[in-house]
Design goal:
The complex is a heterodimer of chains A (148) and B (161). By secondary structure, chain A is mostly helical. Chain A has a domain of 90 residues: Herpes Virus-1, CATH 3.30.40. Chain A contains three helices and two strands. Chain B has 161 residues and is of the alpha+beta class. Chain B has a four-stranded antiparallel β-sheet, with helices on one face. The longest helix of chain B has 21 residues. The chains are: A mainly alpha (148), B alpha+beta (161). At the A-B interface, α1 of A face α1 of B.
Amino acid sequence: MQLQIKNVQCVASWYWDVPKELKRDLHEGEDEDDEDVCGICRASYNGTCPNCKLPGETCPLIVGSCHHNFHVHCIYQWLNTSTSKGLCPMCRQAFSLRDGIRINEPHKEKFEKVLMKARQQNVVSVSGVNAAGGVDQEDVMIDQEFIR
Amino acid sequence: MVHRANNRASRMLAEYKQIREQLQSHESILMLCPAGDGGSLSKWEAQFCGPENTPYADFTFTLSIEIPEMYPNEPPNCRFPPNHICHPNIKWSTGEVCLDLLKHETWSPMYNLLQVVEAIRTLLAEPGVDSPLDVDLAKLYSVDKQAYQGLVTYRLCSRTL
């Protein structure tokens, strides 16, 4: 059977509505009408992180206290590296979820855990003790559960 | 593991597009492109002119860049060919580069390849003499700039192309 598409009618469209006061430009001087992209994967906010197929609620954004926003999966992976030290990749302030933002709510607990770990690693590496420990197995499980 | 490769591939594709658009505005970078290995975008090569008003000004340099699997959460590995460049923060015999930006502790996923190449080019003009790879050359840079420039020029002229 051969199908020929004659006409497409778009009945709805969506995008993440990030209020101006909650975002900072990725690069200063960049054209304003440039689409917002995640500073980590460089894909559009409205697209997905590299590991998801469907944009939208399954691959949401996260709003940082420092007004830097990312795909939740991208920033989680970064914070989960031993070198991130729990810092925002853009401004190097301690990363935390901005309070009172509904889109952040479901992720609070997971981010608290990963940030806690990052801070511990930071302290351990500063004091020069080997950071290897029994926590790794648990982290891997959190990872698998979280990143699909 | 699949995730990581995914991250790298899509990010490199985004950078590839950006580099194609922006390379013209970086006149000193003659080339920045994937170094053919089946289009995986995991190996790149850059060519750039030495910065003006330095002993590097009249020479071009080749840099190979390897993108690790964890990129952009890990920095790229940058290396000059052996016996290619004489600089306090670059090992002459291996081409190894010592630059804060490229260290795991200071790297951030917000940097991209263009910025990395520009940073290495800037390093040529402004050596970091506090943490040198070539201690003698760093010392010479601090005490006798003219001798330093002479030595760098001599070494660069003598390199085999």
